[in-house]
Design goal:
Elements (H helix, E strand, L loop, with lengths): L1 H26 L24 H18 L1 H7 L3 H15 L7 H15 L1 H16 L5 H19 L2 H11 L12 H40 L7 H15 L2 H12 L2
Helix pairs in contact: 4-5, 4-9, 6-7, 7-9, 8-9, 9-10
Length: about 260
């Protein structure tokens, strides 16, 4: 009852602040340049137009909304996020800590590490594409071309030649003479499977020491006749202790970032 009453009082106070400004604005009491409270207006029109420029503006808005919709997929598939989040998941499974660290923490850490790795690429896009476009020095097509270049360069540096050849053969395109002739729709899946392969290789190396520790603990328990005691219950504190002694997070994060060159 106290919480509900507090919410009613807060709503009443907010209404008391807004209603005088709305009423005064409706009566013409406040001038457009005065310090009174005014609310913005929004108008939506579906009227026809004979000007081609109006249609071009609408198409640009639709294109920008499409890019914003695909932004999560672009972030996941065209950056270092895939490798980092897969390796972090392998670390948790190798430790056997179930839901520790939680998924939100793993995704958040992977996201910020991806920003760190991709910072040089974002800087090139900012300097060569975004700023000139905002200053109206280049058109929209040049903006997309300049923004695509640094991302393609990053993906090429992490893509295996074998994976790229696979998708080139599946696409049945002519053999490109250089990287510029490789289509982006071919480069992206090749980059993703290369990232997955690298992440699984790193995950396998992470599993080995913890697997050996699990086998040692299980052998000791079996030799002591304690077969009813789950080995995981005994090995988990030792695996966490080993991970802390070698400063595992520093080693893993440092190795991940260095793996991108």
């Amino acid at each position: 009852m106290t919480l509900g009453r507090s919410r009613l009082i807060a709503c009443a106070a907010l209404a008391g602040l807004l209603l005088p400004g709305i009423a005064a604005s409706a009566d013409g009491g406040y001038a457009p340049g005065s310090s009174g409270l005014t609310l913005p207006s929004l108008s939506l029109s579906f009227a026809g137009s004979d000007k081609p420029a109006d249609l071009v503006g609408v198409l640009r808005i639709v294109m920008m909304l499409t890019v914003l919709t695909l932004a999560p997929a672009i972030l996941i598939m065209m950056t270092s996020f895939t490798r980092i989040v897969v390796v972090m998941s392998f670390v948790r499974q190798a430790l056997g800590t179930q839901q520790m660290p939680p998924n939100q923490l793993i995704v958040g850490l992977s996201l910020f590490l991806s920003f760190f790795v991709m910072a040089p690429t974002w800087s090139q896009i900012q300097n060569n594409a975004l700023q000139p476009y905002l200053e109206e020095k280049i058109d929209q097509s040049t903006f997309f071309a300049n923004a695509e270049g640094p991302i393609r360069e990053f993906m090429f540096s992490q893509t295996r030649e074998k994976d790229l050849q696979l998708f080139l053969s599946l696409a049945k395109t002519a053999k490109p003479k250089n990287r510029a002739e490789v289509p982006t729709y071919v480069l992206i899946p090749a980059f993703v499977i290369s990232e997955l392969k690298t992440a699984f290789q790193i995950g396998f190396m992470l599993y080995l020491p913890f697997l050996v520790l699990d086998m040692v603990i299980a052998s000791v328990l079996m030799a002591m006749g304690m077969m009813m005691l789950p080995p995981m219950m005994i090995s988990l504190p030792f695996k966490i202790l080993l991970f802390l002694l070698v400063d595992g997070w520093e080693l893993i994060v440092g190795s991940l970032i260095k793996s991108f060159g």
